[in-house]
Amino acid sequence: MLPSVIGKYSLIFGFLISFPIFYYSFIDYKKSGNLNTKIISFSFLQLLFILISFICLIISFVISDFSNETVFNNSHTTKPLFYKIAGTWGNHEGSLLLWLLVLTLFVFIFLLTSKRQIKSYRILTTIFQQIIIFGFFVFVIKTSNPFSHIFPVPNEGLGLNPILQDPALAIHPPILYLGYVGASIIFSSALSATVLNYISSSWASHIKVWTYISWIFLTLGILLGSIWAYYELGWGGFWFWDPVENVSLMPWLALTTLIHCLIVLEKRTLLKSWVIILSITTFTLSMSGTFLVRSGILNSVHTFANDPERGIFILLFLFLLIILSLVIFFFFNKNQDRNSSNFFWLSKDTSLLINNWFMMYFLSVVLIGTLYPIFLDVISSEKISVGPPFYHKLIAPFLIFFLIAMAIGPKLSWIKSKFIEKFSLVSFFGISLLLSSYLVFKLNVDFLINTLLLSAALFLFLITLKDFFINKTKNISQKISHFGFGLFILSVLLNNFLSSEIITNLKVGESYDDGKVKIYLEKVEKFKKQNYESVIGYFDITDQKNKTEKFKPELRIYNQPVIITSEADIKTSLFHDKFLVINVVQNQNYFNLRYQFKPLMSWIWISVLIISMGGFTNLLYSRNEK
To answer: What are the φ/ψ torsions at residue 326 (nearest 5 degrees)?
Structure first.
């Protein structure tokens, strides 16, 4: 009980420290000289109190302190230690405390690393950031306190949702939050720079670091969530367009667009309004995602809570922040883009602007697909789900031109350009088109759209690969990310073309044979584990080459809460995955099985790592970028 008490009061002290930070920031704003060190000292003290509070919550989970309501609702004495610790942020209250911890950490780091920036900008950014922190403090303390007390103290807890008891999902929220909260610094920085008319090339270089940090962590967080869904949910795909998946994708699209705008602003002092709007949009989408997940509006395995009061609070807070942002934008962003018309149609500037419009279109499609079912339910009580076909039909045709623009854009010069590599570009596109046409024809899939998509992706892949060998040091981070994106689209398309699936029911001792694959269920065994009962099926799967592999998919019956989960057995190689998952057929001795052959799955994950590596490279070698 003691850790919970310490944690509770540390949280309150952290909240109270916001007031002296506001006080000294306002007092010091118009003074000359250096930044008042008390602002940094109190920011550190605030961070320290939240860190103590978070550590106390971890200790409460580790020692199974069921006097704490959050621990009681989300833990159990039989749960392994790793998942007790991960359970700290595997729930609504704990995840909000983690969010608050990262918010205070980032503003403290900002104050330490922005010493070369003007004092008024540093203070104003701190004020805006403290407004966000203050709002989250009120939210956590009033509606989501992780240190609420229960009396009498229960002897046992309710446990954590078993599908959340996974290593990938355990580290997924902290990494994702680093991406989300990084957007808050970008937001606060953009507002303060707008008020001070400080949007410039030097500011773009400064804030680009925070943008890349946020983008890298958001990319890795999305990757971990996707990998978890692939092997844990048993459907065998890499992206299902689930609403909560989309919630993390939307700020990523906005951040990617912002990075490209900052590149132009850094070179030519253009697209200032774009930068401000995208900074606001990215943070708004991050906050909106929090609202949608925490309010229980979205129906997804990822959601934590179903509490309208919490959702309304976040919605009102977000509304106030958006109003503040729009007031600042319209009153202070005057004549910021008077040179915005100075774009020659054939230049790197224009290609980046085209890239922005494509990204905004993709963002709009995802936003509409995610929110339309919610609005329809509110207006007419009609419930619908928007699935992959909606996104594929609206995104695929535009993705063709987007990929071609990605391949050609980096070859152009700033301000004004000429096609200096006409023959090379035409040759590579011709080769890509011929190879793609042949492959699509042989695979007997929808010819036109798939040929164009595959050829555009292959064109980007080959052009970027060629550039690595011609000029290895120039724009290296851009080449890495573009190469990774081309590889990603190629892997996704070929995975889609070449995948196969078998769904059938088998008893022990029976086999399935379709002439290509033979599946034999040898036996089923049961085992007692620490917090669940395991049912393992032993399968022999033989391919056309008469090669037999043993698979052991598993069913887990958890004791608290009582939930049955399916654990897939996946044989992974560099070029393909073989995926087997089982379920019980009710009131029968049959097991329902789904066997999938998934080509290039590893390369989908590798390509996303390569994309994020481009961001890391930019942070490490930004001084050498041209």
So the answer is: -65, -40
